[in-house]
Amino acid sequence: MGKVITETTFSPVQQTVFDSFAKDKNLSQKFYFTGGTALSAVYLHHRESEDLDFFSESDFDNDGIIKFIDNIASLINTRSRVTLKERVRIFELVDDDKNLVIKIDFGYYPHSRLKKGKRLQGVDVDSLIDISANKITTILQRTDIKDFVDLYFLLKKYTVWDLLHWSQKKFNMEIDLVWLASGFLKVEKFDYLPKMLVPLKLSDLQAFYKDLARKIGDSFLR
């Protein structure tokens, strides 16, 4: 059993949703909590994150999820709209003015976790090692400042070689170092940061990735 935790940096709406999810044993025993909000609210407390991501290693039907979302929408006085994207059901809960209140994702993620994570209110939370492995692959699949920020703080705890090892072990794939270095340099495209809970300058973030890309380049030129 993973370490039980009690303190998070959830917003009030996130806490309401998570409380309801934890009480729904049909869902909370099948899905685990992961993604940027798990990383920030449970582990690093470094930035604000709005989405709640729940993944399952086995396939699932929609009935229980739809019922849960309908109950949440009623509880926080919102309406839901759903998007199906590959193996993920994305639910956006909006208010009467169509402003997004919270986004909740339920995904089928058929990759075994490398390590047991923590537990929050009886819900499994993805481990830092698994989130790290996911992040370094995600940063090559999309260009989102939140991923660069998350990876920046993860790389204060682990080395990039740790993350590459875990990613290869989890996904049975080897990341091309030239591709990775090129991906890191995309941080130059951004002129803003997400809402931070700890100090971080964009210039420092960009300098960090430029230096990391150079070090990776040096490693395969030796």
From TrEMBL:
InterPro entries to which the protein is assigned, alphabetical: AbiEii (IPR014942)
Any Pfam family matching the protein: AbiEii
Domain of life: Bacteria
Protein's name in the database: Nucleotidyl transferase AbiEii/AbiGii toxin family protein
Annotated source species: Candidatus Daviesbacteria bacterium GW2011_GWC2_40_12
